[in-house]
Amino acid sequence: MELAVFSAKPYDKKYLSEALALRSDSSIELIFHDFSLSEDTVALANGSDAVCVFVNDTLNTPVIEALHQAGVRAILLRCAGFNNVDLIKAEKLGLFVANVPSYSPEAVAEFAVALIQTLNRNTHRAYNRVREGNFSLDGLLGRTLHGKTVGVVGTGKIGVAFARIMKGFGCRLLAHDPYPVDAFKELGDYTDLDTLLSQSDFVSLHCPLMPSTDHIINEASVAKMKKGAMLVNTSRGPLIETRAVIAALKTKHLGGLALDVYDGEGALFYNDHSGEVIQDDELMRLTTFHNVLVCGHQAFFTEEALGEIADSTLRNLEDFDERKPCHNALVKQGHLYVKKKSLPVRI
Ligand SMILES: NC(=O)c1ccc[n+]([C@@H]2O[C@H](COP(=O)([O-])OP(=O)(O)OC[C@H]3O[C@@H](n4cnc5c(N)ncnc54)[C@H](O)[C@@H]3O)[C@@H](O)[C@H]2O)c1
């Protein structure tokens, strides 16, 4: 069974090959493509039984149709989010689609904490200063996390893992989630989004991208945040309206912003553009603020998570091939396993 892996980076090749090597009698054959899946590259899936894709591959209606025409029967997402896939079209064409909904949620949660610690204690600035022989502390003043209020938007696997760590720092925890879970109730209090925004010193986004969360942080909601509060997004870029946070950073209403994901990251992230003139003016404006951190969607990037992702991806394909129930199926035998209201807004 041929599996065409798009957007394949050296680490994808390593971990998928290692996971396959552990399956001595597997019929899976991996074909790696360094470039992403799009309307321009979909022809390379010809002859493959399945494709394996990542967060910034394009699986819009034309691509799904082309995959179907090429004889591809399964789409394997080696990530949790599926906002880049036209699941309705996949359902109509009878394609199997599965994701990896859970892989080391602690990896992402720990990265969100790392961003808070860096931004709050200015270690990113200290690192650069010391290398220049500048040991001045001016401008490096932080705030003790102990006793501060942390707002968690979305208390799924990652949000709860994040909340547990922040509880360990001695923070007071607030959360907003339309589906409250007991695991969070042991750590803090649920409240409505406006109260969370107005009371939190740090707000961390852990909800998926869907119609109800697209630009959940916009001009109106950022205005409701406590003055000087910091905002962290390790979930999906379009949760934040970039223009609104730039305006709030300029007025100093927003005290800091840490992004692992960015609306428009698809054109840039995971590739080296250092020799080019980057055309995204909003992203470039963000990088000029001393109190903004931008990372290139790396919160998941630990050895443990990559191992789990590779193994789950191959297991999803095996389940499909052996017609076994697949717990990670989003679409199977023409049936959509995702609530319609959770479907992506912009593909
Ligand atoms: N940066 C990275 O490397 C990386 C890695 C993995 C996942 N992610 C992102 O993290 C997100 C969360 O992952 P997870 O595994 O915790 O998902 P999850 O499905 O376990 O949890 C998501 C939670 O968000 C809640 N939610 C839905 N709508 C909401 C709303 N309007 N307001 C508040 N909460 C809402 C859901 O009820 C659920 O509890 C994923 O959707 C993905 O986009 C990022």
TrEMBL record:
<keyword id="KW-0560">Oxidoreductase</keyword>
<dbReference type="InterPro" id="IPR006140">
    <property type="entry name" value="D-isomer_DH_NAD-bd"/>
</dbReference>
<dbReference type="InterPro" id="IPR058205">
    <property type="entry name" value="D-LDH-like"/>
</dbReference>
<feature type="domain" description="D-isomer specific 2-hydroxyacid dehydrogenase catalytic">
    <location>
        <begin position="5"/>
        <end position="330"/>
    </location>
</feature>
<dbReference type="InterPro" id="IPR029753">
    <property type="entry name" value="D-isomer_DH_CS"/>
</dbReference>
<feature type="domain" description="D-isomer specific 2-hydroxyacid dehydrogenase NAD-binding">
    <location>
        <begin position="114"/>
        <end position="299"/>
    </location>
</feature>
<dbReference type="GO" id="GO:0008720">
    <property type="term" value="F:D-lactate dehydrogenase (NAD+) activity"/>
</dbReference>
<protein>
    <recommendedName>
        <fullName>D-lactate dehydrogenase</fullName>
    </recommendedName>
</protein>
<dbReference type="GO" id="GO:0051287">
    <property type="term" value="F:NAD binding"/>
</dbReference>
<dbReference type="Pfam" id="PF00389">
    <property type="entry name" value="2-Hacid_dh"/>
</dbReference>
<comment type="similarity">
    <text>Belongs to the D-isomer specific 2-hydroxyacid dehydrogenase family.</text>
</comment>
<dbReference type="InterPro" id="IPR006139">
    <property type="entry name" value="D-isomer_2_OHA_DH_cat_dom"/>
</dbReference>
<dbReference type="Pfam" id="PF02826">
    <property type="entry name" value="2-Hacid_dh_C"/>
</dbReference>
<keyword id="KW-0520">NAD</keyword>
<dbReference type="InterPro" id="IPR036291">
    <property type="entry name" value="NAD(P)-bd_dom_sf"/>
</dbReference>
<dbReference type="InterPro" id="IPR029752">
    <property type="entry name" value="D-isomer_DH_CS1"/>
</dbReference>
